[in-house]
Design goal:
The chain is α/β, with parallel strands linked by helices and 333 residues long. The protein has helices at residues 15-29, 41-50, 81-99, 113-119, 129-136, 165-168, 171-189, 214-229, 242-249, 263-274, 309-328, and strands at 3-7, 34-40, 61-67, 105-108, 143-147, 152-155, 195-199, 235-240, 257-260, 279-283, 289-291. Strands 3-2-1-4-11-10-5-6-9-7-8 form an 11-stranded mixed beta sheet, sandwiched between helices. Helix 1 (15-29) crosses helix 2 (41-50), helix 3 (81-99) packs across helix 4 (113-119) and helix 7 (171-189) packs across helix 11.
């Protein structure tokens, strides 16, 4: 039996709606597993009513309410400070359920980073789930990775202005992303002898230094380090022009995963080919964490039109990762 803790996201967005729809689909099909919906109780109930989902009929579904906001504080598309506090409380509570082994994996719904940040009063600053969960679990090596049916893409840097990216691409950061990606392919996605392609930062991977020297100065040496660490486990190629790396990574033709240098270098490709089915996975944490690949959808919140495929994919992947880890547990590398 596997138990998922699902943080439903912003109570003013589509997170509660896609969560209850996905839970309904999985709870009826996987009766041996358990699902804990964590978040604002009023938002979950309102979303269930909009989609005509009766969660009470499922013995394997429970609601862990972290707030019960009045309608004025969870207006569709217009979150306030209380909604920001509710979002953060649901993340913290769902994380605690996994850390204390009540649940086996964490699945997170879409949140509004700026609203959470505005609502915070001290503590770990919230710039995104990846960074926040890494800090809360004292993890120095967390990597954002998008996993879809056609493409797997990891990131060296995450939520940074583009102007700050070159300085953040260090040799250690590139090595970390490559190694964690390769190990996750083996442990969590049952890929034997994984193949990893590593993007350059600059157009044409720097064109032999004419368009930038990060490839020769940082990325190339990092690839050499990663090859030594992964000797006998995985093959690593690069630095490769990004458009070439993603073309060969689509359909896992040549690469089982691509390591990108910055956020949009990966997400444009991932969302172009797998949108709605790609799952945001945080590698390197002591827990399993998956998430949807979309935002809060404020323009359609509580309209009954939210597409739950992303949340369903995130939940299914969390279940599959938990199962894969149990199989690989005695083969750790």
């Amino acid at each position: 039996m596997t138990t998922l803790a699902v943080s439903v996201g912003c109570p003013s967005g589509i997170g509660p709606e896609v969560s209850v729809v996905a839970i309904e689909a999985l709870a009826s099909a996987r009766t041996a597993d358990r699902f804990i919906l964590v978040g604002d109780n009023a938002a979950i109930e309102a979303a269930a009513a909009v989609r005509r989902v009766d969660l009470r009929k499922f013995r394997n579904v429970t609601i862990d309410a972290t707030s019960d906001l009045p309608e004025v504080q969870r207006r569709p598309g217009k979150p306030n400070i209380e909604a920001g506090r509710s979002q953060l409380a649901s993340i913290d509570r769902a994380l605690s359920l996994v850390l204390n082994h009540t649940a086996d994996a964490l699945v997170t719904g879409p949140v509004a980073k700026s609203i959470i940040a505005a609502a915070q009063q001290g503590g770990t600053p919230f710039t995104g789930h990846t960074e926040y969960l890494a800090e809360k679990t004292s993890t120095n090596a967390a990597v954002m990775c998008f996993i879809g049916p056609s493409l797997r893409a990891s990131l060296v840097t995450t939520h940074l202005p583009l102007s700050a990216v070159p300085a953040a691409i260090t040799r250690d950061a590139v090595v970390k992303s490559i190694v964690l990606t390769a190990r996750a392919l083996w442990r969590d996605f049952s890929v034997d002898s994984p193949r990893v392609g590593v993007c350059g930062l600059n157009p044409h991977a720097g064109e032999d230094g004419m368009l930038g020297d990060e490839e020769r100065r940082v990325i190339g040496p990092a690839i050499g380090d990663a090859r030594e660490i992964l000797r006998g486990i995985a093959t690593v190629e690069g630095p490769i022009p990004a458009e070439t790396a993603f073309r060969h990574g689509r359909g896992f033709e040549r690469y089982d995963a691509v390591v990108a240098m910055y956020h949009d270098q990966a997400t444009i490709a991932a969302k172009l080919v797998d949108f709605g089915e790609s799952v945001n996975v945080t590698l390197g944490l002591p827990i399993i964490r998956t998430s949807v690949d979309h935002g809060t959808g404020y323009d359609i919140a509580y309209s009954g039109r939210a597409d739950a495929r992303g949340m369903l994919s995130a939940m299914r992947m969390a279940l599959a990762m938990a199962e894969a880890r149990s199989i690989r547990a005695d083969k750790g590398r």
